[in-house]
Every structure is written in structure tokens, then in C-alpha cells.
Design a protein that fits this description.
Largest sheet: none
Helix content: over 70%
Number of strands: 0
Order of helices and strands: HHHHHH
Shape: globular
Number of helices: 6
């Protein structure tokens, strides 16, 4: 919800948070979903897959066929697929996956 709020109400957040929180939290969500779907996989494998998936989605923003741009016109389609490629998004995705990875490592250490 915080990621959506940073996009919907950017004036409520500091500029840095409003600009980068959504993409960082999106990648964290991807990491958590992949880890939930594949709980037997190692943290490293989940992180790599989450990064590859996130980077693929970002790189797909170079592709602008009518059918995919029609999907992007819907709010959910635009939130998932994005609209335009930004190098900074790749950094945000890396940070989001790193947060998930470190968080899971800490969680596992605390519950050992």
C-alpha cells in the first residue's frame, strides 16, 4: 500500500521517497511472492529470479506494440508493466530485492 500511496499521493512524501519507493517496494513484493510460491528455493535463487523478472519487466518497456500499450492504459496493467524505461528503476529493483534478502536472512537467524 505504501508503494501505491507514494504514486497516488506524492505530495505527502519527501521527493526522494515519492520518486523511488514505488519501484523499490514493487521489487520487494516480487521477491516475497516468489519466495512464497517457491519456499524450498534458497534465498539466492529467489533473489536472482526476482531480479531477472523485475529487469525483464523494465526492459519490456522498450516494446510498444498496440496490444501491450492497451494493457498499460489500464491502471493495473500500467502498475505491473510500467510505462517507460528508466535506469534508476533497475537500481530500485536491486535495492528492493536486497532488502528482502537481508530481511529474510535476519528473520531466519532470529528464528533459529
Amino acid at each position: 500500500m505504501l508503494g501505491l500511496a507514494s504514486r497516488s499521493y506524492p505530495e505527502l512524501f519527501p521527493l526522494f521517497i515519492a520518486t523511488y519507493a514505488g519501484d523499490t517496494l514493487w521489487a520487494l513484493m516480487v521477491f516475497l511472492l516468489i519466495g512464497f510460491i517457491f519456499p524450498q528455493k534458497s534465498i539466492v535463487k529467489v533473489a536472482i529470479f526476482a531480479l531477472l523478472f523485475s529487469f525483464f519487466i523494465e526492459l519490456s518497456q522498450f516494446y510498444h506494440a498496440p496490444w501491450i500499450d492497451n494493457i498499460r492504459e489500464y491502471r493495473l496493467g500500467g502498475l505491473i508493466l510500467g510505462y517507460r524505461f528508466l535506469w534508476s528503476d533497475l537500481v530500485c529493483y536491486s535495492v528492493g530485492v536486497a532488502i528482502g534478502s537481508v530481511g529474510e536472512i535476519i528473520w531466519l537467524k532470529l528464528n533459529d
